[in-house]
Specification:
Layout: E1 7-9, H1 11-40, H2 49-73, E2 75-77, E3 93-98, E4 104-110, E5 121-123, H3 127-132, E6 140-145, E7 148-157
Parallel strand pairs: 1-2, 4-5
Antiparallel strand pairs: 3-4, 3-7, 6-7
Helix pairs in contact: 1-2
């Protein structure tokens, strides 16, 4: 499901990104313009470190803005009703037992753009996320992760 032309996400995440884009185009650009104007007022631009820093910040800001616009344009909303309830898919909440450590974890499988490990959201393109996709309760999954080989048992799917 990891199609390079699309960015799969939930409606909520798309709404959040659209709000961020609007804020960046208004407040963000205005803040940077103010910094540049303030630095420009300090005189000779050829030796003005504050001006150089403000221009560099503007460049980085515009790159982030362009990336965000691209992500929004390529967004494809995920409709959970398209997926079977008995196997893991993008947006599934999957309770697993790490057979190596005997610890249980619950992950939500999400697009790379929504991944947030601290919040328990793992990308379907990550080794663990890809290994869990399409599996059913009771299945055991072996995953080769950067930290080494891991084995999981699927305990529940929501």
């Amino acid at each position: 499901m990891a199609d390079l032309n699309f960015v799969y996400m939930t409606r909520e995440r798309l709404n959040e990104l659209e709000r961020d884009l609007k804020r960046m185009k208004t407040e963000g650009r205005r803040d940077i313009a103010d910094k540049i104007a303030t630095a420009r007022a300090h005189g000779d631009l050829s030796e003005n470190a504050e001006y150089d820093a403000a221009k560099e910040e503007q460049e980085k800001f515009e790159i982030r803005l362009a990336k965000l616009e691209s992500t929004i344009q390529r967004a494809k909303i995920i409709d959970e009703s398209q997926f079977a309830d008995d196997e893991t898919h993008i947006l599934s909440h999957v309770k697993v037992k790490n057979l190596n450590s005997k610890k249980e974890f619950t992950y939500q499988l999400v697009s790379p753009e929504e991944a947030d490990f601290k919040a328990g959201k793992i990308a379907v393109t990550s080794p663990v996320g890809a290994g869990l996709l399409g599996k059913k309760v009771g299945e055991k999954v072996k995953v080769q992760a950067p930290a080494g080989a891991m084995q999981f048992e699927i305990l529940a799917i929501e």
